[in-house]
Amino acid sequence: MTFSNLGLETIFVDAVEKKGYTEPTPVQSKVIPWILKGKDILASAQTGTGKTAGFTLPLLQRLSKQKHHPSRSVRALILTPTRELASQVHENVKEYSVFSDLKSAVVYGGVNQKPQVRKIRSGIDVLVATPGRLLDLHNQGVICFDKIEVLVLDEADRMLDMGFHREISKIIGFLPDKRQNLLFSATFSKDIKSLAQGILNHPVNIETNPENSTVEAINQFVYKVDKVRKTELIIKLIKDGDWDQVLVFTRTKHGANNLCKKMKSSDINAMAIHGNKSQTARTKALAGFKDGTVNVLVATDIAARGIDIPLLPHVVNFELPNIPEDYVHRIGRTGRAGSNGEAVSLVSVDEYPYLEDIQKLISFKIPSEIPDGFPLDPRITAPGPKKKNRSRPRNSKRSRKRSGKRR
Ligand code: AMP
To answer: Distance between CA 135 and CA 206 in Å, rounded?
Structure first.
């Protein structure tokens, strides 16, 4: 199968080949022909499957077939949950439109809006945006939605998890009724299904991953360890194993900073990436991690979401997430494109209930052991019956503020 077999024209095939890709990934083979036909899509696809090119290439081809409006108003809107993902998707849009005359821009919060406004005013065809900043700019009259023909919701599950339901509904209320809608999501909760029902028009359903199951190529492993000795253990694992590219997840920003500091003082080249870091600091950490000058990236879930690092050999859960689906997202960062990856979780006694929830979700008992030299302190026992409502509060601005939107 080639990209031109799927119906893509030379300028887009050349653009994707310029990036070194000659064969479409499964999700690309499935979605590209339908998007070219103008159908709505409901696709299950995790980061790492090539989904971005899957929607970007056919979307650009469709736009390139029509004349742009004299005022060059936005014709395609791509919504993403985080600024990292927005800027990565925009990079892709730029790369895939390099041989066409299509113009694009990206907008997200946390940075000065002036350059974004200038770019939009200069006339663009494709806009990549996070919901909050997009609404701000719309309210200020900077963006006109009247000419939008295509809407993409990328990582829709994560947008709902982050409490963007109201913003999404508002944005959709401003768009013209007649448009093509493409919804991509890694998981399919009830909330996603009802969002999809409200937006999509006779969609084609595309499944590329079995629902809520983890990729088979990933070796999963649990080390049972006392909380106070986790740092010592992770440093030992990284040093003894000569791991040179490790993504480590912590639950909090504070935890990420702390761990990073301790690793640095053990001569491990680590950097943290989370919502309190400036955009420049995050970009620098990510670039260093990609080029090998940073060996360990310590991240919180949302900051790590959507970062584009192909073929990660090691993912470590320094703490288990309390939302079981986040475990699936986290370990999905390894074992990509058929290469083997390893996902290690350091689990202390208080996290056993989380481990149970995760194993239930993935229908798999993760092999575990107590590492040599780290015997468990028998005085620390498992917590009593777990509290019922441990899920992340959804769809409420207030709860988002309370839980800290930028984690
Ligand atoms: P995504 O799922 O869109 O985040 O893409 C994951 C990674 O796969 C990115 O590094 C892409 O550049 C890369 N990629 C996209 N399309 C292909 C392809 N056809 N073959 C190989 N890699 C690809």
So the answer is: 30
